[in-house]
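User: Predict the complex.
Assistant: Input components as received:
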Amino acid sequence: MTSRLTRRQRRRISQGIQYAVFVAVLVLIGVLADWDRLQNQFAQKDLALRLFPEIITTALRNTVIYTMSGFLLGLVLGLVIAMMRLSSVAPYRWVASVYIELFRGLPALLIFIFVGVAVPLAFPGTEIPGGTYGKVALGLGLVAAAYMAETIRAGIQAVPKGQMEAARSLGFSHARAMVSVIIPQAFRIVIPPLTNELVLLFKDSSLVLFLGVTLQERELTKFGRDLASQTANSTPILVAGLCYLLVTVPLSFVVRRLEARADKAV
Amino acid sequence: MPRKTEAVDDTMATDRPEIEIRGLHKSFGDNHVLRGIDLEVARGEVVCVIGPSGSGKSTLLRCVNLLEEPSGGQVFVGGTEVTDLDVDIDAVRRRIGMVFQQFNLFPHVSVTENLTLPQRRVLGRDKARSAAVALENLKRVGLADKADAYPAQLSGGQQQRVAIARALSMGPEVMLFDEPTSALDPELVGEVLSVMRVLAGEGMTMMVVTHEMSFAREVADRVVFMDGGVIVEQGPAAQVVGHPRQERTRNFLNRILDPAAAGAPADDGRRPRAEDGGSGTG
Ligand SMILES: Nc1ncnc2c1ncn2[C@@H]1O[C@H](COP(=O)(O)OP(=O)(O)O)[C@@H](O)[C@H]1O
Ligand SMILES: [Mg+2]
């Protein structure tokens, strides 16, 4: 019997079934969930409004600062580690590999705790510069560097070998060729994955929660959670979540655009 | 054909050869690619290197500017031993221009910047001077109007001409060409060869790996035939391409001059196109 159906008909039936399942699930959730309780707990309008402007001027602002400082530190450190991975000196390669495996293999939370506890222990008397901001930048940066190093290394290796040869044949030293010719090209290749890393970091900045921070240093998640417990209502969590999406959704959109452009360029 | 040998005589009669290769060996692991190459290129001389694929032609060129480290033997360029471990190789390479089969222009900068970037970063020339040199060399290859284009916007032939201009901007004493037209569509080969022809006419010392036999016959002072990592035969183009002495040279020329005859016995009667060269081209 199926053989009687044309491809078009079969496709229509298949799509019809998928839509039916989708609607059925929605209806089921709609009927079963206790919307009043949910709204009470998560969507108190006046409570939500009271979060402003502080949730933007302090919490979102701190989230952005933590993310950007972690990103910049991660970028610099990642570039260094990528160069070490590609070095002709074996111990550099080993150190870089161990670093990458270690920091990619550990939960970011553990690294945060490590930064908060172990660094002051290991170097007594020294303070991480910048207080909480410095600690967060270090924690995020250490994690991000491991991922970025691999991305950057792949980007550098994606630059055709002939580019280095052309540069060397013109008299560039290896280092100058890297800086003037190879890395600028590698960065074009890695901008989409690095932007992706930025999105991940933006979310990971919520781990600051586990370092003691002052009121002024709270970022979105900590802020939302504190206010949720103060008000015995979860609306601040929802609003904090929306603030994350406000940034991550457009960023993801930018990443997709960049990736599409990169695909075309190659 | 010996027009350039005269130029050599009155400019550099007493000096050493511009390129001097002595007992050059190169192995990649177990693969013994160059098996004792001795070759001299006089100042202003154009030497074409021909030979089957895999015979070590590229490796030979790349040993001259040390893109490959020779496993044995010596290479001198302009009297400097480049194989000396104490020599500043970057300084030596500035004097040796190289043109690659795949052009290898820097795709992330404009045509002009392809020419100015090396001048500024390597030679320390200032912006104005490097731009002036760049323009002058773009004019030389007939591409001054493409100064602001990006490499990807150019045809293969134009890209290769820019690559030649880029090498010339560094003011090299020697130019190495590794199959500069092999990646080009047939209709674009001519424009690159004519730039090279002009360069040869201006007295540039050139080592050219090529399969363009008409170019070799017309421009080369000397043709070197390589096979299996050794120089099998060398001499004036009219002799090596026109009347090869060695069986291996004859076989090779038969194959590339008339691919349809590949595998046919090497026989003197099969080289009409090689022999009519020389007179018809000038
Ligand atoms: N970087 C390299 N590593 C290993 N083998 C190489 C390398 N470059 C060239 N070879 C080998 O050397 C031989 C000669 O290559 P090449 O000089 O490119 O020949 P040609 O230019 O005459 O075609 C080939 O067998 C090739 O596989
Ligand atoms: Mg080759």
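Confidence is low (pLDDT under 50) at residues 1-13, 262-282 of chain B.
Let me know if you want any component modeled separately.
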